[in-house]
Amino acid sequence: MESATIPSIDSLPVEDGDLLRLLVAGSVDSGKSTLIGRLLYDAKLLLSDQIEALEKTSIDRGEVELDLSLITDGLRAEREQGITIDVAYRYFSTPQRAFIVADTPGHVTYTRNMVTGASNSDVALLLVEAPTGAVEQFRRHAAIVSMLRIPHLIVAVNKMDLVGYAQERFEAVVAELTPWVEQLEIPQVTFIPIDALGGANVVDRSESLGWYSGSTLLHELENVSVVADRNFSDYRFPVQSVIRGGGGEGESARALAGQVAAGIMRPGDEVVVLPSGERSHISSIETLDGRIDEAWPPMAVAVRLADEIDVSRGDMLCQPGNRASVTENLTARVCWMSERPLLAGARLLLKHTTKTVPARVDQLVHRIELDTLGAEPDPAALELNDLGVIVVSTTTPICVDPYRVNRRTGAFVLIDEATGDTVAAGMVLHNDEMREPRGATNVIWQDSRTTREQRLERLGHAGATVWLTGLPGAGKTTVAAAVEERLVTSGRPAYLLDGDNLRHGLNSNLGFSEAERAENVRRTAEVARLFADAGFVVLVSVVSPEADARASARAIHDEHELPFLEVFVDAPVEVCEQRDPKGHYARARAGEIAGFTGVDAGYESPSDPELTLDTDRLEPGEAVDLLIDLISARVPDPRG
């Protein structure tokens, strides 16, 4: 992966380093709107005319004290019902930081509105009532926070006044919630006791909570660091529009306008345009204030390339060695937002970054049970506010990353083509997230009556898996087949598992989306493990471009204490393309194959393989000798 220098906090403009997007959520009557009102009021962030209007409305409603919830509950329906329905946004700033606060609905009926408010948030503030502790809607909201990868969660234990500000009750609520929250793998979780109605521990400390030594809520919000949460490594620039005209000597007359989604962009950087795979260099980066030396998320800029190449709205600029996945198939978590149930086969529009394409829901994988975070496999439908996992195919390729890697390029929405309504928010899944649920629950592993040790003693065969990974055309299968032949000739059992051969049978139902590639690797690793357990030296020849998938293959063998040797068959993409033994590079360049590794899909080189074979430099026989030597050293032949 090509490195980039991460800018310091001081070098970032206020909208990057000092702006905090805050989500506030909780169950009905948990005090969300009151808390936000108290925060603004005690921090002296309300204008005098706002306070006067608030006082008048409170008196008209028969309130003895100011009803601070009225500051954000702006809809008439909300005021009449006393609940938050829509997402209310507040913009304010303190000397330390600027804030955009999304006050989201608490009622289960409006969960979809909460998802909308959470989609761009840096920090989630969830309220829990001290007298009652966690309720189902808290678990729902916490699951959404996890699903949307909000890295910071503050749990405000509100209404401490109703339990006499008792330390024991606060600690009991924390003890109740901690096991649940830990399952969600949220990087930072903080519990704070407060009394939103009276103001204790919201902006100022209170003697009532004198036993609490942590931060007040406002102090925590002003000091939580969010700059490090930005992805400055994976270079992503979705093209919003093409501006014609301008340009100087040695650069395109067209500028590509958009918002930096990830990475640090600089003039001189080599870029690849996805999905076409064409390459160029950045000649300049421009803003309304003129040319700049670098751009980072979420800056809006115009980029000029050194070459006149075909680039359109919806295309994406990446670094050649670190690309988004170009795919027509993806697996994703979704929150269904329509009263009309989602059924398999539904045809919708999928909007991803700057591109909107027709799509079909091919499969409902499972529905998430919020009580247990378990999964109901193969649901008949997803109903309003359901969270689930689906498989989607698009009519044209899109450029995506896993949502956990990049919240911009890993997110999408589904739109009803007839009404134009947004009916789902989706998050592209990463490889290891595809294990939900893994395996059936009603089957038991059947042990053999012959142990591995007995098999070794009687047959004299020690097994292992040799995993050859590398770009298409690097020479993996050539080397593996020659090693297989030499081992078998010497009397040692060996078998070649070639990726293309497996896709004719075992993996014939898998495509080439990121999730399906991961499943291809998993199945191959499981089969290889069985062969290795039987005493074979298994030579696996699979591109397996993602490091996480290969790590999972190794883990499958480690779990059963079987040797796993990763061999990186290394050759420059230019050499592989010149070889092109199966004609795949040519077809990919012609646009006939989407998501082809080395053209419009990236490859993550192994960081610490047991052996690297530079097939651009080595003769085939030399590469075979080196691999035979490795096998002999790491998995000695018991026969000598």
Automatic annotation (TrEMBL):
GO terms for molecular function: adenylylsulfate kinase activity; ATP binding; GTP binding; GTPase activity; sulfate adenylyltransferase (ATP) activity. InterPro entries: APS, APS_kinase_dom, CysN_GTP-bd, CysN_II, CysN_NoDQ_III, G_TR_CS, GTP-eEF1A_C, P-loop_NTPase. GO terms for biological process: sulfate assimilation. PROSITE patterns: G_TR_1, G_TR_2. SUPFAM superfamilies: EF-Tu/eEF-1alpha/eIF2-gamma C-terminal domain, P-loop containing nucleoside triphosphate hydrolases, Translation proteins. It catalyses: sulfate + ATP + H(+) = adenosine 5'-phosphosulfate + diphosphate. Signal peptide: none annotated. CDD domains: APSK (cd02027), CysN_ATPS (cd04166), CysN_NodQ_II (cd03695), CysN_NoDQ_III (cd04095). Residues 17-229 form the Tr-type G domain. Keywords: ATP-binding, GTP-binding, Multifunctional enzyme, Nucleotide-binding, Nucleotidyltransferase, Transferase. PANTHER family: TRANSLATION FACTOR. In the N-terminal section; belongs to the TRAFAC class translation factor GTPase superfamily. Classic translation factor GTPase family. CysN/NodQ subfamily. APS kinase catalyzes the synthesis of activated sulfate. This is Unannotated protein. It comes from freshwater metagenome.
